[in-house]
Write a structure and sequence with these properties.
- The complex is a heterodimer of chains A (304) and B (293).
- Chain A is mostly helical and 304 residues long.
- Chain A has a single domain, classed as MetI-like fold, CATH 1.10.3720.
- Chain A is built from eleven helices and three strands; from the N terminus they run E-H-E-E-H-H-H-H-H-H-H-H-H-H.
- In chain A, strands 2-3 form a two-stranded antiparallel ribbon.
- In chain A, strand 2 and strand 3 form a beta hairpin.
- By secondary structure, chain B is mostly helical.
- Chain B has two domains: 58 residues, no CATH class; 172 residues, MetI-like (MetI-like fold, Orthogonal Bundle).
- The chains are: A mainly alpha (304), B mainly alpha (293).
- Chains A and B meet through strand 1, helix 1, helix 2, helix 3 and helix 4 of A and helix 1, helix 2, helix 4, strand 1 and helix 5 of B.
């Protein structure tokens, strides 16, 4: 089903069907590639250009291109807190989503392997949150975790939460929301890898008197690395740039703003396009560097 | 059997069983606790995942006045008069229109690229792959701001058109990935047979290749539609005065979401689940029939 798209494609190995490309290959490629060049790459370039603009001296509210590298220094200085917070929240959400999803994916992919129908039904439940509006499910959590809600009143009754404490509007709520919203993206690739895990290897490890912990650490975990890598990427990247969970109408507050909120308010509210552009380029560059480093470290370069 | 044993051991890992298992025949470890610990955890985890969905559906029946926050009693009015709330249905209609248009563009362009990638060797292959991968690795806020900056520079007014262009752009890569998997799994012998029987290249493509690709293309189209339908971040940067369903909710969030929005979200959810369920069940039936043969 559509779900396979999240898990990365199986490598298209050169079969006998592969032909040397000629005019047909070009005809097939050109429209789509042109579309991406025009509406993906060109906007990135125009974002870089915008990030180097400075306010026009003649017309108020206009910006001129001036190689104004100082924009970058300025946004880093001004928003370092939000930038660091975004990556911290994204890392936390990724780790929590991984810990939450691994046993679930293992259960569906390995334990339930003899019942394919049950497997697909459970998978549907895992991705079900994706079928209800992203904003509405986040708002639902906001209302469940609100001060008058069941969760907060219970925690307060148990004195686990002080009378003045809140959940919504804090960093905890934002990390919670990010984790919840991206769990399906973590679960699916984990499932695809674990579903293909060769159980004979696990058995062999047991026959060699490995403890369950050793079997997990030296056999199961390394074999599930491809799923872990794509799952963490699919969670980390959107989480780092998200601004819905952290926005104050949803789960965040003034002390939990992320880089996405800053980009949005600079671009759409303050109309400070150069600052928004510089932050976007910074965000993207940081993510690409981190992802490149991570993928190299985990030894799964062929995923890309 | 063996699955449950491992289940125990994985759980011991993840949830944190305190003591190390003593060195006895490892095959028996974990039967006691692991046998039920993993299923129980998974049941709780799935319930947790479904909480906001149930909440949204339940509150679509709430007899709310202006804000839909506290429960005031059961009513069917929201379902029967969805379009009474100004803006909800219009936003929903826009979302459908945008979703369908973006899906058509992305599916056509993406399928062509997928076929070229699997079936032909050509220069710039690595660059093409990179160009397809990057949109999936770029945060939406960056793509949204980039497109908005470009439309601004080019003087293009924001509206439904700019949203469609944006959505087709980020759906394209997902279509390529999905269809590519299907093309790669096709048996080239089938096309060879078509050629051996003197089928012209276009006959072979339309009578053999394309019908075999249809499930993959359909899956890609469904994925693309659902990505487009639920997209908020890129849309918000490029929508101007037009409301889609998600931007409607976003703006309504400050003054309170009308219950009619819950109705639409619930209806879409139930429809999507039904489509996926039918798809899975029929795939299952087909698998069984194939096994019998």
């Amino acid at each position: 089903m559509a779900l396979t798209a999240f898990a990365g494609s199986p490598a298209a190995t050169g079969s006998s069907g592969v032909r040397r490309g000629g005019r047909i290959a070009l005809l097939l490629l050109i429209p789509g590639i042109a579309y991406l060049l025009l509406f993906f790459l060109a906007p990135l370039i125009s974002l870089v250009m915008t990030s180097l603009q400075s306010p026009s001296e003649t017309v108020f509210g206009q910006y001129d291109f001036t190689f104004n590298w100082a924009n970058y220094l300025q946004v880093v200085g001004q928003y370092s807190e939000q930038i660091l917070r975004s990556f911290l929240y994204a890392v936390l959400a990724t780790v929590f989503a991984l810990l939450f999803s691994y046993p679930l994916a293992y259960f569906i992919g390995v334990t339930m392997r003899r019942w394919p129908l049950v497997q697909s039904l459970l998978l549907i439940l895992v991705v079900a949150p994706l079928f209800i509006s992203f904003l509405l499910r986040t708002l639902a959590w906001k209302q469940i975790l609100s001060d008058e809600g069941f969760v907060v009143t219970t925690l307060k009754a148990l004195s686990l939460l002080g009378p003045q404490d809140h959940i919504t509007g804090t960093g905890i709520a934002v990390v919670f929301g990010l984790t919840y919203n991206f769990i399906p993206f973590m679960c699916l690739p984990l499932y695809t890898t674990l579903e293909r895990l060769d159980l004979r290897v696990v058995e062999a490890s047991r026959d060699l008197y490995a403890t369950p912990f050793t079997t997990f650490r030296t056999v199961i975990l390394p074999l599930s690395m491809p799923g872990i890598v794509s799952g963490t990427l699919l969670t980390f990247i959107p989480a780092a740039g998200d601004y819905v969970n952290a926005s104050s109408q949803f789960l965040g507050g003034t002390s939990s703003t992320m880089i996405g909120n800053v980009i949005q308010s600079n671009f759409l509210v303050q109309l400070n396009y150069p600052a928004a552009a510089a932050l976007s380029i910074l965000l993207m560059a940081t993510i690409l560097v981190l992802v490149g480093f991570y993928v190299r470290r985990s030894g799964t370069e062929d995923l890309l | 059997m063996s699955g449950q044993n491992q289940a125990g051991l994985v759980l011991g890992q993840e949830i944190g069983a305190e003591e190390q298992a003593p060195a006895r025949r490892p095959g028996r470890v974990g039967i006691g606790v692991g046998k039920w610990l993993l299923p129980v955890y998974c049941t709780l985890a799935l319930i947790f995942l479904l909480i906001p969905i149930v909440y949204t559906i339940v509150f679509s029946f709430n007899d709310s006045v202006r804000t839909n926050i506290s429960w005031r009693g059961f009513t069917l009015d929201n379902w029967l008069g969805v379009c009474n709330e100004p803006g909800v249905c219009e936003a929903f209609g826009n979302s459908i229109l945008i979703g369908v248009s973006a899906t058509v563009i992305a599916t056509v362009l993406g399928t062509m690229i997928a076929i070229a990638l699997v079936r032909y060797r050509f220069k710039f292959r690595a660059a093409t792959n990179l160009l397809l991968f990057l949109p999936m690795a770029t945060p939406e806020v960056v793509m949204g701001a980039g497109l908005a900056a470009q439309f601004l520079t080019a003087g293009v007014p924001k509206g439904i058109g700019t949203i469609i262009v944006a959505h087709a752009m980020f759906c394209l890569s997902f279509v390529v990935v999905t269809v590519k998997a299907r093309v790669a799994s096709l048996d080239p012998a089938l096309e060879d047979a078509g050629r051996d029987l003197y089928g012209s290249p276009s006959q072979v493509f339309w009578r053999i290749t394309f019908p075999l690709l249809v499930p993959g293309i359909l899956a890609a189209a469904l994925l693309s539609f659902s990505l487009s339908f639920d997209d908020f971040i890129i849309t918000y940067f490029n929508s101007g005065a037009v409301n889609t369903f998600p931007t409607f909710i976003y703006t309504a969030a400050t003054r309170g979401i009308p219950a009619e929005a819950n109705v639409i979200a619930s209806a879409v959810f139930l429809l999507a689940i039904a489509v996926v369920l039918i798809g899975q069940l029929s795939a299952n039936a087909r698998r069984k029939r194939a096994a019998i043969r």
